[in-house]
Write a structure and sequence with these properties.
single chain; alpha+beta; Jelly Rolls; Arc Repressor Mutant, subunit A; 2 domains; four-stranded antiparallel β-sheet; 25% strand; cNMP-bd_dom_sf
């Protein structure tokens, strides 16, 4: 998202995280801007029963965890490295200084946060109103659009990851995927979902 050269000019550091390493925890004070250089990060919440709800997944070039920096509140979710990852980390003061110097980056950040807010509103509606098949299809279509809306899109997520993103149980996702395939809305090729 932000050019790495600019981040490092503002004293950012590159931090290696192994798969499963916690980057920050829910309710921890927000002190840094994070951007994935290489790897994948998941932001999530756990309920009282230990069920995970994924707030978002971020990969190479994407930033995460910015709203608490702007709103001066604690992280509403935890972030963990899904695989071995390199994360660029910039302290909050330097991050705000960078935004003041580079208004174009500030506008880009605002647009990114707006898209994420739109996604959250869409998912809240999905979870509260629609049946499982609709929720699954909405997530697939969102990912397809994010990837440039190719004529045929292969979903890289596992059934468990789709469940975590939609607030469904994996068994429900498996049934929903089967029903969507029977309805001709998706194809299953080598156990992968295609739309």
């Amino acid at each position: 998202m932000i050019d790495e050269k600019i981040l490092f000019e503002h004293q950012a550091e590159l931090v290696d995280y192994a798969s499963g390493d916690m980057i920050f925890s829910e309710n921890q004070r927000a002190l840094f801007y994070y951007q994935v250089k290489k790897g994948e990060v998941k932001m999530f919440n756990l309920n009282e029963d230990g069920k995970e709800f994924v707030q978002g997944m971020f990969e190479d070039g994407e930033s995460f965890g910015e709203p608490p920096l702007f709103g001066d509140f604690k992280y509403p979710a935890s972030a963990v490295a899904i695989n071995d990852s390199q994360i660029i980390k910039l302290n909050k003061t330097a991050f705000f200084s960078l935004l003041k110097e580079h208004f174009d980056i500030h506008l880009q950040m605002t647009a990114t946060l707006s898209r994420r807010l739109s996604y959250k509103a869409m998912m809240m509606k999905e979870i509260s109103v629609y049946p499982p098949e609709h929720r699954v299809l909405t997530v697939i279509d969102f990912l397809k659009q994010k990837d440039g809306n190719p004529p045929e899109y292969e979903v890289e997520l596992t059934r468990q990851q789709i469940a975590d993103l939609t607030g469904l149980r994996v068994e429900t996702v498996i049934r929903a995927v089967k029903q969507l395939e029977e309805a001709g809305k998706i194809k299953i090729i080598n156990r992968k979902i295609h739309r």
